[in-house]
Amino acid sequence: MPPPPPGRPRDPEIDRRIVDATRRLLHAGGLDAVTISAVAAEAEVTRPAVYRRYRDSASLAMAVLLDDLDRVAVAGAPTVPRDLPLADQLIALVRPILAYYAANPTVSTALLQLAVFADTEVGTELNLQLFSFLEDVAARIVEAMQRGELRADTDVQALVGAFFALYFITALGIVRSRLESEEALVATFEAMIRQHLDGVRPSPGAGS
């Protein structure tokens, strides 16, 4: 038997309207304002149109997180020069993300909490996006090793993991209401990453 005919393709314009509507509701009232009915009304689409794409308010809010991180992090990474010292590159990669958090503290708190406790389906999408970003970080670390900025025996994956851990610890400053400005967030990350990189730099005179 031939396979059943495919369903009606999704309309990308409706996809965009739903995500943008969710973002507006998040900014206006936080997660409590995001419901299927409210998003449908704000986006001027039917509730079934929303349900076909998202099963609950958490998945709607996570769609905003994925969309925003793609815009500020993944898309911005190629603009960071690769000939800068590694610490400067890593700070430049993180700065737009931390700026986003600082500019949207209430929304960012909710979205960070969702990211930590994301279910399997949403978590998979987030992990794919994160993998793309961290793959670029790994390549930059390898380049720093090749130019002698880091020791040849540096564990690339361990350093990538440390980079992400330091970034996430910094971002949690928003959740704890201890770091409220972009500069405070960036300064905190910068101090930690520079100190961490000191541990994998060649010793003075090494190789001479």
Structural key phrases:
208 residues; mainly alpha; Arc Repressor Mutant, subunit A; Tetracycline Repressor, domain 2; 2 domains; 9 helices; 69% helix
Structural overview:
This protein is an all-alpha fold and 208 residues long. It folds into 2 domains: 1-54, Arc Repressor Mutant, subunit A (Orthogonal Bundle); 57-198, Tetracycline Repressor, domain 2, CATH 1.10.357. It has 9 helices and no strands. Helix 7 (120-146) crosses helix 8. Mean pLDDT is 83; it is low at 1-7.
Query: What top-tier CATH class of the largest domain fits best?
Result: Mainly Alpha
Unreliable stretches: 1-7
Structural class assignment: mainly alpha
Distance between the termini: 72 Å
Cα gyration radius (Å): 20 Å
Number of strands: 0
Shape: elongated
Helix content: 55-70%
Per CATH, the architecture of the largest domain is Orthogonal Bundle
Estimated share of beta-strand residues:
under 5%
Order of helices and strands: HHHHHHHHH
CATH topology group of the largest domain: Tetracycline Repressor, domain 2
For the biggest sheet, the summary is:
none
Q: Total number of helical segments? A: 9
